[in-house]
């Protein structure tokens, strides 16, 4: 098997990098990331996902678990999109990061939050990378979406909006890096691959990508405005934040 083309992408930033190499992830507090997508028999979050949501809630000082869960989803979506899109654009291959072999330590920050012992195999071939990019991300996003929607009662539409927003954010960082380093063709390829993801389900109706200048406007809200001191994100559908006293039925 070919080794995953991660080193080039890692130069873009920590979200585009992945810990690899030998070792014992379990001994260092990592769990297989697939465990985060499993619910208990009663439909509650399992210990890995619950611990992450509780940590984010404490960090943001929110008493609303669903708000923390929404932001957990968006953060992990940004990681997996970056790990798929960066190598596809810069090296012409997509690492196949299977949930049963990728390890996650939600107490660490990128790039050390995710660890693949050894080197993952590569999917895709030049000119045909849109499918592998979507596969590499959605193998994580689909089960995580299902888990958070059920366990935390977060709107499924809202979560796919988070996934689209995360992809647009990864695209923006990668596109700017490529332009700054004289790689105009790679910057254009990044837009093309991201547009392909945003043009098909489940992201097709999540928002609109613009390219002059590069930007994204989503059709839902991630609920960040409900965090104490929080506000609206730059791509939010809302024009002003509703008051926290307007019930729990916030936009999704």
Automatic annotation (TrEMBL):
It comes from Streptomyces rugosispiralis. This is (2Fe-2S)-binding protein. Residues 218-238 form the Ferric siderophore reductase C-terminal domain. It holds the Pfam family FhuF_C.
